[in-house]
Amino acid sequence: MTTDVPADLELTPLSGRTRTIAEWTTNFHLAIVAIDPFTLESSWILDTAARILGRYAEADVRIAFLVTASIEEATQFLGPLAERFLVFADPDRAAVRAFALESLPAFVHINQHHQVEAVAEGWEPEQWRDVATNLSDRMDWTVPIIPDTRDPSPFVGSPALS
């Protein structure tokens, strides 16, 4: 089911200026891993998420983390990943609500019409692979291996809006 994201939803990167989702998706789709730095579940998925997002670094898609925290907290939580990836701070969880997420971490594919085209919540490898397959089909890109031998065991995730 496709979720329409309001065109005026603002996303704030760690560096740079705030822009609307319509601006972020003008030329490229978005592949976002949404995480909550105050839960263990999101820390368990960082390496896996970085590996999956990194696979799309040269594709025609913007890859990013969406962190439900302030800029400072997001930078601290992600450490060196904050320098490798585009990172959006979402302390009031406006984007999480707009994407209709119920559980974090989540892997979200947003198309150029600012619609959630595919989503996986928690760490269910088959669901993440479905999102990656959808994204790869749209980008004419290869699908990353999901799960990989170093990935965590499946888990439900934590409530997205708590």
Written description of the protein model:
- With 162 residues, the chain is an alpha+beta fold.
- It has a single domain, classed as Glutaredoxin.
- Helix content is 31%, strand content 26%.
- Strands 1-9-8-4-5-6-2-3 form an eight-stranded mixed β-sheet. Strands 7-10 form a two-stranded antiparallel sheet.
What are the defining features of this structure?
alpha+beta, Glutaredoxin, 162 residues, two-stranded antiparallel sheet, 7 helices
Topology summary:
Blueprint: E1 3-4, E2 10-13, E3 19-20, H1 21-24, E4 29-35, H2 40-44, H3 46-54, E5 61-67, H4 71-78, H5 81-84, E6 86-89, H6 94-98, E7 103-104, E8 106-110, E9 115-121, H7 125-139, E10 158-159
Parallel strand pairs: 4-5, 5-6
Antiparallel strand pairs: 1-9, 2-3, 2-6, 4-8, 7-10, 8-9
